[in-house]
Specification:
InterPro entries: Creatin/AminoP/Spt16_N (IPR029149), Creatinase/aminopeptidase-like (IPR036005), Creatinase_N (IPR000587), Pept_M24 (IPR000994), Pept_M24B (IPR033740), Peptidase_M24_C (IPR032416), X-Pro_aminopeptidase_P (IPR050422). Pfam families: Creatinase_N, Creatinase_N_2, Peptidase_M24, Peptidase_M24_C. Belongs to the peptidase M24B family. GO terms for molecular function: metal ion binding; metalloaminopeptidase activity. Keywords: Aminopeptidase, Hydrolase, Metal-binding, Protease. By secondary structure, the chain is an alpha+beta fold. The protein has three domains: 144 residues, Creatinase/prolidase N-terminal domain (Creatine Amidinohydrolase, Chain A, domain 1, 3-Layer(aba) Sandwich); 140 residues, 3-Layer(aba) Sandwich (Creatine Amidinohydrolase, Chain A, domain 1); 284 residues, Creatine Amidinohydrolase (Alpha-Beta Complex), CATH 3.90.230.10. 35% of the residues lie in helices and 19% in strands. The strands form eight sheets. The protein has a six-stranded mixed sheet with strand order 4-3-2-1-5-6, sandwiched between helices. It has a six-stranded mixed sheet with strand order 12-11-10-8-13-14, sandwiched between helices. It has a four-stranded antiparallel sheet with strand order 21-28-27-24. Strand 22 and strand 23 form a beta hairpin. Helix 14 packs across helix 15, helix 14 packs across helix 19 and helix 16 packs antiparallel against helix 17. The two termini are 41 Å apart. The mean pLDDT is 96.
């Protein structure tokens, strides 16, 4: 009945094969006279999702998370992960071969300072690290009296004999009926920004920036319609797009050539070198540009200007066409979600459903819309203790049956041509405990605190992050991830530069779309997260002395009433919840079948204190 087309449930490789790989890798390092090497979870553009040919960290260690780093020395090897992946990493790697360490606090450089010896030669691939990351490694090596060595070719690739070929996903034109702005107009805005930077040219090292600027999409990585590519944009004149020609149909090539020259990726280095030899100042995105690019520019006599890619902010502020598209995408997604949640409530109490069943069902309901291009990330469906693993991905080995008394956490999203969605709901299976209801209600109050926030122009995500945590803190608890991330327009579900987190320093601007997803996780017991996407809009406040902003909630899906302790909600919070449910019912009800209507009416019924 149900099936998943866009994700698999196979178990990652582990065991003896991985131990043999580590031994072979150490032999290759010795052959190259290196005493260690750094393996980031990264491709040349620091993408979140990388092609199979770039999954070096997973191939060597067995760890399949979306962020991490390994350092292999002659007698020690460590895997570094953040708080999202601590539990997952411990289960995936061989504890005899690898220690699992913190990626953030303390950072890997602290571990290096302890384990490097004077005279050691630590290798790194300058195409897989930003310049800032390379500089941090260099400082750690210098402190230990060791040397950081930029390699010409990656030694891991020499031992990865069955490494897949690079991807060749076809490029599609993303028309102005979806993008809302022609590429020529975007280029004028970008060239104005290049002028403000005092640069002669800008390297677009982030494929998302290339896709947005030139109104193209691709199929080179999972779950994000990304055409792996670069562009070089001069402050005046025609830019050049560097992309494998095998990805381009005649129409896609014609589209690009209306506003740019088109060259193979191999032409980027000589073109940059030629520009740098004329003494040019070339702007690079410090977040995504490989250290190799800075080295190349500086070696040729140019000036590498590292900073924020101006395209990131232009892309983050959606125009009217993109905003209307994302509203349509969320209404469409809401129909699939209502059908799914109604199905869960019918089927889960029997005790026969598994986590994989829910993933397959939700994707099927989304495919039934006729508009689904992909899921926007692998669905997280964790029941009971699996729900406490923040970035859990179900496999056939970990697949758990959903039992009465469980909480089911399901975090999922869709890629539609007019918009990208991301939504999390926590569902009570049977009767929840008092503790579950208390924790859920605290998370809900934080979620409502963000949704109802009103804030002046210039406010950053860090300034409002506390609103999501305040009720958890009152109980002495917290969650170890950010409250929200930016979301693209038929692009990455995780988009910078703005976010709602302790690290969110970019001011929130009108037109930005961010997630609102506080949570709580009790290890080996249950997990709770409530996530909607929010659009930053202007707030009309009588007597306001400065421009004010607020959030418009885009996601339309009932929040489980059975998990709410109404005695904990304020009058305003209860009013928000009832208003939200009334809106969900109004917008979704006309588009679902009779059985789902009955369920939806009950799931969104007015709550009274």
């Amino acid at each position: 009945m149900f099936e998943a087309h866009f994700q698999t449930f196979e178990e990652p490789e582990s065991g003896v094969a991985l131990t043999a790989r580590l031994a072979a890798f150490r032999e290759e390092l010795a052959r190259r006279k290196l005493t260690g090497f750094v393996i980031p979870r990264a491709d040349q553009q620091q993408n979140e999702y990388v092609a199979p040919s770039e999954e070096r960290l997973a191939w060597l260690t067995g760890f399949t998370g979306s962020a991490g780093m390994a350092i292999v020395l002659t007698h020690q090897a460590a895997l570094f992960v953040d708080g999202r992946y601590t539990l997952q990493a411990a289960k995936q790697v061989d504890a005899k071969a690898w220690s699992v360490e913190s990626l953030i606090d303390p950072p890997p450089e602290s571990w290096l300072a302890e384990h490097l010896a004077a005279g050691d030669r630590l290798g790194f691939d300058p195409w897989l690290h930003t310049s800032a990351a390379a500089e941090r490694l260099a400082v750690a090596c210098a402190r230990a009296g060791a040397e950081l060595v930029a390699v010409e070719t990656n030694p891991l690739d020499s031992v990865w004999t069955e490494r897949p070929a690079p991807p060749l996903g076809p490029v599609a034109i993303h028309g102005t009926q979806f993008s809302g702005e022609a590429e020529g107009h975007k280029l004028k805005r970008i060239q104005e920004e290049i002028g403000k930077l005092g640069a002669d040219a800008l390297v677009l090292s982030d494929s998302h920036a290339v896709a947005w600027t030139f109104n193209i999409r691709g199929a080179d990585v999972s779950h994000t319609p990304l055409p792996l590519s670069y562009a070089l944009v001069p402050k005046s004149g025609r830019p050049t797009v560097f992309i494998d020609h095998r990805k381009l149909s005649n129409s896609a090539r014609d589209h690009l050539e209306q506003s740019a020259d088109v060259a193979e990726p191999e032409a980027l280095a000589p073109d940059l070198t030629a520009l740098a030899q004329r003494g040019a100042a070339i702007a690079l995105d410090s977040a995504t540009a490989a250290d190799a690019l800075s080295r190349l520019i500086n070696a040729a006599g140019g000036r590498a200007l590292r900073g924020s890619d101006p395209v990131a902010l232009l892309k983050a502020c959606k125009n009217a066409t993109e905003i209307e598209g994302t509203r349509q995408a969320h209404r469409r997604d809401a129909v699939a979600l209502a059908r799914f949640l109604a199905w869960i409530d019918r089927e889960a109490p029997s005790g026969t459903l598994t986590e994989i069943d829910t993933v397959e069902a939700l994707e099927t309901f989304r495919r039934d819309t006729g508009a689904l291009k992909d899921v926007s990330f692998p669905t997280i469906a964790g029941t009971g203790p699996n729900g406490a693993i923040v970035h859990y991905r179900v496999t056939r080995k970990t697949n758990r049956r959903i039992a009465p008394g469980d909480l089911l956490l399901i975090d999922s999203g869709a890629q539609y041509q007019d918009g990208t969605t991301d939504v999390t709901r926590t569902i009570a299976i049977g009767e929840p405990t008092a503790e579950m209801r208390d924790r859920f209600t605290r998370v809900l109050r934080g979620h409502i605190g963000i949704a109802r926030a009103v804030f002046p122009d210039g406010t950053t995500g860090a300034q409002i992050d506390t609103l999501a945590r305040q009720f958890l803190w009152q109980a002495g608890i917290d969650f170890e991830h950010g409250t929200g991330h930016g979301v693209g327009s038929y692009l990455s579900v995780h988009e910078g530069p703005a976010r709602i987190s302790k690290l969110g320093t970019t001011p929130l601007r009108r037109g930005m779309i961010l997630s609102n997803e506080p949570g709580y996780y009790k290890t080996d017991a249950f997990g709770i997260r409530i996530e909607n996407l929010e659009l930053v809009v202007g707030a009309d406040i009588a007597g306001a002395e400065k421009p004010m902003n607020a959030f418009e909630t885009l996601t339309l899906a009932p929040i489980d009433r059975r998990l709410i302790d109404l005695t904990m909600l304020s009058e305003q919070e209860l009013a928000w919840l009832n208003d939200y449910h009334a809106r969900v019912r109004r917008e979704v009800r006309p588009h679902v079948d009779e059985a789902t209507k009955v369920w939806l009416d009950a799931a969104t019924a007015v709550l009274k204190a």
